[in-house]
Every structure is written in structure tokens, then in C-alpha cells.
Amino acid sequence: MTTTIGLLHPGEMGSVIGGTARGAGAVVLWASDGRSEATRKRAEEDGLRDVKTIARLVGESRIILSVCPPASAVAVAREVAAHSFRGIFVDCNAIAPDTTRDVGAIVTGSGATFVDGGIVGPPPRRSGVTRLYLSGDHAGDVQEVFTGTPLEAIVVTGPIGAASAVKMAYAAWTKGSQALLLAVRALAVREGVDDALIAEWKRSQPDLPGRSENAVGTARKAWRFVGEMDEIAKTFAGDGLPEGFHQAAAEIYRRLEDWKDTPTAPSLADVTKAVSR
């Protein structure tokens, strides 16, 4: 039997995930009302079927995937719950386990089944680079949808929140250390010792010059990471750990938000100016 999946919403990650499910035989729906032309173009390129409204998407879907900025995760869940969805709702967003449980309570309150998800890696255009971690009683049903596709679905042992915890721990290092590198390079530039720092890194930490340059190059995506860092800080605090690391990382990314979707990446000088206030 063909599985019908509703996708909210086809961003750069979500659209490719939808196309991956469609390539495995699923029918993937999206709702264009209120969405941008860029979103429409992505959805068309990945073969998603436009049903115009959230109400129709909810009514026709067996599984709904929520792939959106972290700050929108609760609002998306409420919108789906308002239409009394009774299928499987999968939150795939970079949110804290506590936020995940809040989302689960919203959708199960309207009769849906909830699965916790966390994505690690880039949009899954080829095999071996992207994982979807899943937890919850029906995680296996969602895993089955992606069997044999470029998106590797992995069921995590544990309750709702376990998959989100994997994502939070992973991104705490990857995006958190990236923000730290941006701050360190800005500090070295401001103090006039950037050349000396790079020379020392080449001798004692040879991977760091390249990693710091890569961090500068991703500044156009910084706006996406602010909410994720806030959720990671919330996760640390919830477990009695210091949350300041990732509150600072959120602020670094917040100061780079003006570079959102610019045609070219900023230079190190641009980043230094933006983060040094």
C-alpha cells in the first residue's frame, strides 16, 4: 500500500527529504498557501504534490513530517492538531527533548501518534551522509518509509526525546565549536595577531585554519542556527549543565543574521566586524 506523507514545510532540508520519500514510492504532499515562490520551486523540483491547504494535507496524510526552524516547531504542531490529525506526526526539528515532549503532547492531544526525530547531516541527496534518528513506539513505521533511500533512518532506544537528545548533543559540538572558532578568529583579528595564531595552529592544531575558514563560509546560514543554539542551551540547563556555552553561540549567530541568503559569503573581515560590537 502506498504511504501518503504530508511535509511541513519544503525548506532546503525538508524538500529533499520529501523527494527521498517520494523516490521510495510514497506520495508526498505539501501545502502552498502562504508559502514563498522559492518554497514552491523546491517542492516542484522534488516532485511534491501541492494540496494548497494544511487542512487538506492533514486530511489526506498517514504520516506528517515537520521540518522547520526550531522556533516554529510548536506552532506547526498546533496547526496540525487544530485539524484533528490522527496519523503519525514526526517532529524532525532541532529542538530540546523538553520542547519535543511539549510538541508530542500537543499532537497526541488531538488523537495523533507522535514520533521524535532528529536529523544529522546535509540534505540527503546521496547515501551515507545523512541520518534521521527516531524514537517512540512507532519509530519503526517511519524508519520503514526510508529503507533503501539516501536518508538512513535509525531507531534510538529510549523514550520520546531520545532522538532529539542525539541531535542536541551532536550539534552542541558541530555548530557550537563553529561559533567558537568564529569568535576566536574575530578576537585574533581585533588584537592584530591573526597571522600569528594561524601560524601556531598550522604547527599544533593543523585542522583549525581550514575549519575556521569553513565556519566563515557558512555565515550565510547563521540565521538558521540561532534557535538551534537556544534549544541546545535549554537542553543543557534541563540536565543541570551550564547553558552559557550555547547562549553565547546563539549570540554569535544572531550577530550574523544580516548575511541571510546573500549571494556571496562574507569575508573574515566582515564576520569580525559583525560579531565584534
Question: Could you give a short description of this structure?
Answer:
It contains 12 helices and 8 strands. Helix 4 (73-81) packs parallel to helix 5, helix 7 (162-191) crosses helix 9 and helix 7 crosses helix 12 (268-275). It is α/β, with parallel strands linked by helices.
Q: What is the architecture of the largest domain at the second tier of CATH?
A: 3-Layer(aba) Sandwich
What is the class of the largest domain in the CATH system? Answer: Alpha Beta
Count of DSSP helices? 12
Number of strands: 8
Structural class computed from helices and strand pairing? alpha/beta
CATH-defined topology of the largest domain = Rossmann fold
Question: How many structural domains does the protein architecture include?
Answer: 2
Rg estimate, integer Å: 20 Å
Identify the overall geometry.
globular
Helix content: 40-55%
Taken in chain order, the helices and strands follow as EHEHEHEHEHEEHEHHHHHH
Please give the order of strands in the largest beta sheet: 3-2-1-4-5-6-7-8
How much β-strand is present in the residues?
5-15%
Distance between the termini: 57 Å
Query: Sheet bearing the most strands, described?
Result: 8 strands, mixed
The averaged pLDDT comes out at 96
CATH 4th-level superfamily of the largest domain: NAD(P)-binding Rossmann-like Domain
